[in-house]
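Bench log, entry 3. Co-assembly request; chain sequences pasted below exactly as received.
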Amino acid sequence: MLYHVQIKVMPLKDLLDPQGKAVLGGLHNLGLESVQDVRVGKHITLDIEANDANSAKAIAEEAGKKLLANPVMEFFEIELIN
Amino acid sequence: MKFGIVVFPGSNCDRDMQHALSVDLGQEVEMLWHKDQDLSHFTSDDCIVLPGGFSYGDYLRCGAIARFSPMMQSVITFAENGGKVLGVCNGFQILCESGLLPGALLQNNHQQFSCKNVFIQGKDGKPLQIPIAHGEGRYYADEATLNQMESNGQILFTYCGKGGESGAAYNPNGAVRDIAGICNANRNVFGMMPHPERATSSVLHNQDGIAVFKQLGLI
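Structure output for the full assembly:
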């Protein structure tokens, strides 16, 4: 069965995110002064052929650990869509 | 010592490195294609260089995709067997992504690509003027790793002022502890953001890069 998996990759909470700071400045320039902070990450979707949901999740987990996120600077969360 | 320079899709300092090593420094140099895997003609006395550039378009993260290229599998084995490996700029990023060097290179703290001359100093404290050209050069590792690296003498180059002054004003990207270049615990894998190969020729009126190659024990 084909499983659709979404992976959210975000910079670690303690690290400065310059891209987020630049976007925050842009939002303030738009007049959205109430926005206090912005952090920018990545949203990655995977279509995985697997026997069951747990196998699909395990494959996504391996993809996240080995390539999609760098644990020195990022963390990731997996969500199974179907 | 012989040098091998790996050419990835998107490398753009490979020819600069080749010119610096062969013409300016008189070394034997061989270009290596990322899809090849044969390093059997290199011994642990030799050095593999990962040049600067934008390998694989910097997709996902700088150096993340290059790390899985066929040649990198051989370079990792070569390094594990004691062979010397030098990564400059994007090459440094690839070495961190490969796990051959600790830490990671993050986006510059000021959000801009920096292309200018800076000063760095090594163990002897003499300031060397070396160009930088990067958007993701902010070296980062956690405190425990940094302390271990410092006690092992793995922090090889730090950013400084013209007179050797230290401080945030001389750090071009927000790198932790002003780190510009490091090595691994075995001292055979080296990574640095500044480009020594851009400062080895008399016609460029700056040959401070030669001192960098000397301090790394590569010439």
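The two ends of chain B are 8 Å apart (CA to CA). Residues 2-215 of chain B form a domain with the Rossmann fold fold (CATH 3.40.50.880).
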